[in-house]
Amino acid sequence: MQQKFKNLNGISVAFDELKLRKEHLKKIIIEHPRYKRIYNLISECHLLSVGSVEPGTLFLYGGTGVGKSTLLKEYTQNFPRFVLDGVTNVPVLFVSVPVGATPKSVASEFLLSLGDPNYEKGSQTSLDSRVFQFIERCGVQLVIIDEFQHLIDRDTKHVLNRASDWVKVLTEKAKVPIILCGMPESEKIFLHNEQLGRRFSVREELTSFNYDTREDKKDFRTFLYILDKQLPFSKQSNLADPKLAEKLYYVTNGVPSYIKTILELSTVHALKNGQDYIDEGNLYEAFISMKVSKRPNMVNPFCDKKFNLYQAVENEGRK
Ligand SMILES: Nc1ncnc2c1ncn2[C@@H]1O[C@H](COP(=O)(O)OP(=O)(O)OP(=O)(O)O)[C@@H](O)[C@H]1O
Ligand SMILES: [Mg+2]
Question: Which InterPro entries match (predicted)?
Fold first, then answer.
């Protein structure tokens, strides 16, 4: 149900209210069409594999900030853990590959996620046998492995062979469907470890929003419209207005994480001013505090009545 927020009528919010409203915004998740499509694919991979002789696999990839982890964590939360006959059941196990992965650090991460208090203790053999034992005993139906690109060394860019072999063995032995997720460069791991690559031949991308066709524009504006309705204000901010949507697209490139960042900054600004919605002045100020490292020539489009997306993109030297 949508939460109601009181009118501020020009009176700046108190600290507690500011915190509450900001937290509300952070938690908003919009199930846009591409999100729903991937969610359904994961659900199919999960539910069709229960009791199957050959459980499914899926590799989900996408650039930073498109919402991969958000979606996977939401999926995991929709299958909460429960205690049955004194055993904690973990229907969906979510694990992140640690930076500079080794077989030991990956196995420990699995045990930590499974709730083993001694997750770092023991030899490799002992850690591994506990991982497989617990997967079975905790009734794990689906394993999700995020940050797959951490199987590539950050400095040397070499694939970490021992850790990627560990993941390969897991996919062979665990007898449950597995979702791997990471940045597009993770494909390199499959080229290097062909056996793992063969296991994950179904590959799906979660993309950011586009703004080329009428359909693209409609999708992006619908996303903004739904987001707007859930913002922690008593009135709407008209984010989906064609001109404003164009400016928001220019600044964020349609990447949900940038959209969330600029809206968080402008929300705080507006709330401190006692406003009941975000205006372009707030977005203008938010833009100044926001740094997008790869775009040093980006201009502030807000409060610019003559802003033109195509001209601005050309001036910036992008296509
Ligand atoms: N569908 C969505 N609705 C609302 N907010 C979203 C959505 N998808 C992503 N976000 C926001 O974008 C931010 C980044 O999302 P997330 O961390 O899931 O990206 P990611 O694809 O996992 O990136 P990385 O590869 O860097 O880990 C989060 O703050 C999240 O709240
Ligand atoms: Mg992530």
Answer: AAA+_ATPase (IPR003593), P-loop_NTPase (IPR027417), TniB (IPR008868)
